[in-house]
Design goal:
Bound molecules: ribulose-5-phosphate
Strand content: 25-35%
Largest sheet: 6 strands, mixed
Order of helices and strands: HEHEHEEEHEEHEEHEEEE
Radius of gyration: 17 Å
Structural class: alpha/beta
Shape: globular
Number of strands: 13
């Protein structure tokens, strides 16, 4: 199977998960990226069950709206049952690296509100130790040089993502060469650097459910089993 076929398969499994577990009329959080795009296309079929969707990026909001799915402002809702999103890497503790698409800050905000974070990935994203995928860090533009120097002190090599301005008007530094042995500690440490908006480690609030697609099918993992 191609990677796109695996993404399609996991998107379908996530649609079924939502149809089974999200009560009719409740709000769904929707992530960003190519796997999330497959998921958006799938939930068009169940849009009448949804009270609406909260998007983690402008791109996702546009795609949802294109399917006639009502897009809500996060500030206008009190609760969100499920958030579905992809990841760049996920480890055995359900901690993730995200932000390959540059939407990490909004993704982290939407995830914070959600009752259940469902991560949808193909098997290439499952790793022993995260860090091979460069860790995205969203920074306030005037702080990018300072933050780069501070990130280098942590052992990584930050590179400015050329041509990228986030939906929040900020820049992304991709940090290469980190072996992330302590995801929660590193997430906290990087967020303490002045000028950092947030970083792409989702460890403090990791995934609750992982739907993982491989040639053998889509497997489901639960965080309760590993935390
Ligand atoms: C976007 C993200 C994505 O979830 C992550 O980059 C995975 O993307 P894809 O499904 O295209 O592999 O965090 O900011």
């Amino acid at each position: 199977m191609t990677q796109d076929e695996l993404k399609q398969a996991v998107a379908r499994a996530a649609r079924d998960y939502v149809a089974d577990r999200l009560p009719v009329g409740e709000i769904l959080g929707v992530g960003t990226g190519s796997t999330a795009n497959f998921f958006i296309d799938e939930i068009a079929a169940i849009k009448d069950r949804l009270g609406g969707a909260v998007a983690s990026s402008e791109a996702t909001a546009q795609r949802l709206a294109g399917h006639g799915i009502r897009v809500l402002d996060l500030n206008d809702i009190d609760a969100m049952g499920i958030y579905v999103d992809g990841a760049d890497e996920i480890d055995g503790s359900m901690a993730m690296v995200k932000g390959g698409g540059g939407a990490l800050t909004r993704e982290k905000i939407v995830a914070a509100v959600a009752g259940t974070f469902v991560c949808i990935c193909d098997a290439s994203k499952r790793v022993q130790t995260m860090g091979r995928f460069p860790l995205p860090v969203e920074v306030i533009p005037m702080a990018s040089a300072y933050v780069s120097r501070e990130l280098a002190k942590l052992g990584g090599t930050p590179k400015l993502r050329e041509g990228m301005v986030t939906d929040n008007g900020n820049l992304i530094l991709d940090v290469h060469g980190l072996a992330i042995a302590d995801p929660v500690g590193l997430e906290t440490r990087i967020n303490q650097i002045v000028g950092v908006v947030t970083n792409g480690l989702f460890a403090e609030r990791g995934a609750d459910v992982l739907l993982l697609a491989s040639a053998e099918g889509v497997q489901t993992f639960y965080a309760d089993a590993v935390r």
